[in-house]
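During the reporting period the student researcher (J.K.) took over the structure-prediction task from the postdoctoral fellow and processed the backlog of single-chain submissions. One of the processed entries is reproduced below for the supervisory committee.
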Amino acid sequence: MYLFSPKLFIYNINDMAKKKNKVWLKWLGFTLFVPSLLLNFFYATRPTSDYSIEVLEVLDGDTLLLDGKVRLRLRQVDSPELEYCYGQESKDYLESLVKGKKIIIQEKILDQRGRAMALVYLGKDLINLKVVEEGFGRYHSDKTSQTESLKSAGTYAKENQLGVYSPKCYQKEVNLDNPDCIIKGNMDINDKDLKRYYFPGCAQYDFVIIEKDKGEDWFCTESQAKKAGYIKAKSCYGKSL
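J.K. obtained the following structure tokens:
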């Protein structure tokens, strides 16, 4: 025989109300999330024909925040992270060029991580080219209508030791910050997670270049290099500093 329980009835009512609230909150979150997602998708997949849009902020030397809170990277440009050599200078330079101004977007695609990147113009000036030519970013290989110009700009910056190629960031012979610290920390060109250190006597030592804009650096001791995630290069085995 089933007996009616007031306590059980009230519990069930409260439980149903909680479940309804959870469902309502989920739908509210979904409703707010979808417009934002669609807006970002719209800008990321917008046709590659020219269009103009305002730059709200400059996030670093090669990344813009556009109207609509959408990020855009400069195509064929690789600027230093803010904490690395010339990182802040690169951001400041790009900011001086485009912040608060309307830019023209051309040849936009998504990179391997799904991030939008494009050629960016201010009037007739190609911002990507200015950044590379002045050494505030490295030329990054890609195929666009401006590939040859950008590649030449990168060569120009390197030959004239500008920006990331200046002695401040691009060092081979001497550690300008501390000449007594002579261990070179170098990242693999194909794998940035593979980091090796070299000291005088290692076969490749004289040829290793410290590119501080990429995060490479000098060290005073082997233990210091190891602590930073570097391992002894094979050409250094059996040798000591």
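The committee noted the following: The helical segments are 6-44, 87-98, 127-133, 147-159, 222-227.
J.K. will present the remaining backlog at the next meeting.
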